[in-house]
């Protein structure tokens, strides 16, 4: 059976990661969380005590770091220089700085090369912010996930609470709005919907409904190949 490439884009907390992961499991595809790759780079910069706003210093640090996404029985695990950082990269400090790190052209070039290597054989679900527009513009299926700001904040608040961190609602609203602005206004590979992407509003959908929608669209494309 022909294996296709599925590109899932959208802003923070739109539901991309969980939906992409479960979609990949349903289709027996590889799940590539490109955001995790940028977060890993960001963690490296933070640990090296480099100013995230200084592109030249950032790039000098990340050139030799090794990032690996590994599929395990416990889901995708992220490794940086051989160390499991799956949980660490979800910290608020990484979240606050990842937009700056991922806006640099040299950083994105490095990551895009790695992401494209993973797509050569098809059978991949990639999620991020520039998948359908830059990384794999010829992906057979492109989904652009959106959700209301209220729902996105609720999800992020729950995610943090589950990890023992309680954040004020209004503070999270401001952080997400600021993140959206940085991602959509950056010069290099801004967040935007590909012309041929299907918009999926997840505000009132369950995770299973989101997965079923994407799997159904993928099946239609596969059946016609």
Keywords:
225 residues, alpha/beta, five-stranded parallel sheet, 9 helices, 49% helix
Layout of secondary structure:
Blueprint: E1 5-9, H1 16-27, E2 30-33, H2 34-47, H3 55-62, E3 67-72, E4 75-80, E5 83-84, H4 92-102, H5 105-117, E6 124-128, H6 131-135, E7 141-146, H7 149-162, H8 169-185, E8 198-201, H9 207-223
Parallel strand pairs: 1-6, 1-7, 2-6, 7-8
Antiparallel strand pairs: 3-4, 4-5
Helix pairs in contact: 1-9, 2-4, 7-8
* Beta-strand residue percentage: 15-25%
Order of helices and strands: EHEHHEEEHHEHEHHEH
Helix run count: 9
**Count of strand segments:** 8
Helical coverage, percent range: 40-55%
How does this structure look, described?
- The model has no long low-confidence stretch (mean pLDDT 92).
- The chain has nine helices and eight strands.
- Helices cover 49% and strands 17% of the residues.
- Helix 2 crosses helix 4.
- The strands form two sheets. It has a five-stranded parallel sheet. A three-stranded antiparallel sheet has the order 3-4-5.
- The protein is of the alpha/beta class.
- Strand 4 and strand 5 (83-84) form a beta hairpin.
